[in-house]
Amino acid sequence: MSSLNIISREYVEGELKIHNIPGMAIGVIKDGEKILAEGYGVADVEKKTKIDSQSLFGIASCTKSFTAAIVAMLVDQGKLDYDTPVIEYLPDFRMYDDYTTKACTIRDMMNHRTGIPGHDSLYTDEIDRAELFKRMRYIEPNAPIRTETQYNNVVYTMVGYIAERVSGKKWDDLIKEWLFQPLGMTNSNTTIPELRASNNIAEPHWRFEDGTIKKIKNWCVSPGEPCAAINSCIDDMLKWLQFHLNMGEWNGKQLISRECMEEMHRWAVPFPMWSVHIDEIPPIQGYSMGWIEDYYRGNDLVYHVGEIEGYCSLMCFLPKRNIGVMIMINNHNSAILIEQSILYTILDNVLGLEPTRNWSEFFKGEKGKWGGFYLDENIDLMPDDPVPGTSPSHKMDDYVGEYWNPGYGKIVISRDGDGIKAVFRGMEQKMSHYHYDTFKMPHIKMDTLLVTAPVTFYTDPYTGKINKFDVPFEPSVTPIMFERKK
């Protein structure tokens, strides 16, 4: 089957224009053979360089499948068990409540069923995974353990840390020694310095509010490497998909047992992905361990998507049809519509199915309609109707100081001209008065989202001084309280 029969260059380049995306790489394998590995568009909007099958992209949350594979290897070695409480391996393991602390397992963590919501503003390169591990006991859940599926990057980071503790090796070394090297993924890496050392990078881009596409800097996700740090290319990721189609076997050696591979791929918890009805796929999907389970026109589909600043990705394989597809995009703003358009068009052709619709036209018509990661990455939690005629109860200097939360760490409030600003996670956040003692903090970075949220200050009733403030970094739980350091 020729690449033209899989998907035409005209179709892909037309999709890039429709969705305002600089470039893309696509790879397809079938029955153990690479039948497509090509680049489209540009790697750099300034230099107009081209993309090929060796161009490096950030794969973002597709990294979770690698962390899950490392855990599977530790299970095979007898150093971990999916259903043994984590505290039996790490006696210093603590969650927010005693029951979850005693009950939580690796399976709970990898199935996103710990009861902890996103808390995506926890990330900061000012701390390491060991410190984040200590802070987990202060992170509030919004549901009892095993009652809801809530996608969680922080928890997957802790899965990687647990693997480090029980193996005695750093996560980066585990990935390189146990997976990259055996699979011959010689062009893949886990850090931004390694990425920048390459001379073949699909540069990260961002679509700004005026619609322009500009190159941006790579984001170091530390300490969240186990959930989103891997950089790779089409040629290497096709090896990764073939490894999963082989059920853990590579070059005659079983690197991961078939039993653990089945555990990784098995639907474990409900995980609804799509916000619109599509006849060709079921109304609900499932999550396992670093993979999402779905169907396309009656065919089993195992996949994951990834989004990080500058990049989007989609990897999938059809276990019963021996097919794998990898899509990599060098633009951050959500690209799931183009990924689905490309994927379903490829699957129709590779499976030899009569097309049910023009996927380009369908997803073009869905732009801006869907919720979640289908819309803009800017979220405003504050209505534009503050109480008029109010003012802060204190002078601006009275709000200045260092504030602390045991889970989120410190926020420093300082003067900014006539007003105040915050420094959080090493980033400066300008603030404007909203009403009374509430200020607006715009564009707080929460994973790949930029959130505008209220910061409300409180006065000590005994001293009359500002002594704390709260901010809804995780809207599904009580606003996070920061107390002034004494």
Roughly what percent helix?
Answer: 25-40%
How many extended strands?
24
Rg is 23 Å
Large-scale geometry: globular
Span between N and C termini? Answer: 70 Å
Main sheet: strands, sense, barrel: 10 strands, mixed
Q: What is the SS-derived class?
A: alpha+beta
Low-confidence stretches: none
User: What's the helix count?
Assistant: 14
Roughly what fraction of the amino acids lie in strands? 25-35%
Mean pLDDT: 93
Structure description:
With 486 residues, the protein is of the alpha+beta class. 25% of the residues lie in helices and 26% in strands. It contains 14 helices and 24 strands. The strands form five sheets. Strands 15, 16, 17, 18, 19, 20, 21, 22, 23 and 24 form a ten-stranded mixed sheet that branches. The longest helix is centred in the N-terminal third of the chain and has 15 residues, at 153-167. The protein is globular and about 75 Å long.
Describe the structure concisely for a colleague.
This protein is an alpha+beta fold. Helix content is 25%, strand content 26%.
Q: Which short descriptors sum up this protein?
A:
486 residues; alpha+beta; eight-stranded antiparallel beta sheet
Helix and strand arrangement:
Blueprint: H1 3-6, H2 9-18, E1 23-30, E2 33-41, E3 57-58, H3 64-76, H4 98-103, H5 106-110, H6 129-135, H7 153-167, H8 171-183, H9 192-196, E4 205-207, E5 213-215, H10 225-228, E6 231-232, H11 234-245, E7 249-250, E8 253-254, H12 258-265, E9 269-270, E10 286-287, E11 292-296, E12 299-308, E13 311-318, E14 323-329, H13 336-350, H14 359-364, E15 378-380, E16 401-405, E17 409-416, E18 419-424, E19 427-430, E20 432-435, E21 438-446, E22 449-459, E23 466-471, E24 480-484
Parallel strand pairs: 15-22
Antiparallel strand pairs: 1-2, 1-14, 3-6, 4-5, 7-8, 9-10, 10-11, 11-12, 12-13, 13-14, 16-17, 16-24, 17-18, 18-19, 20-21, 21-22, 22-23, 23-24
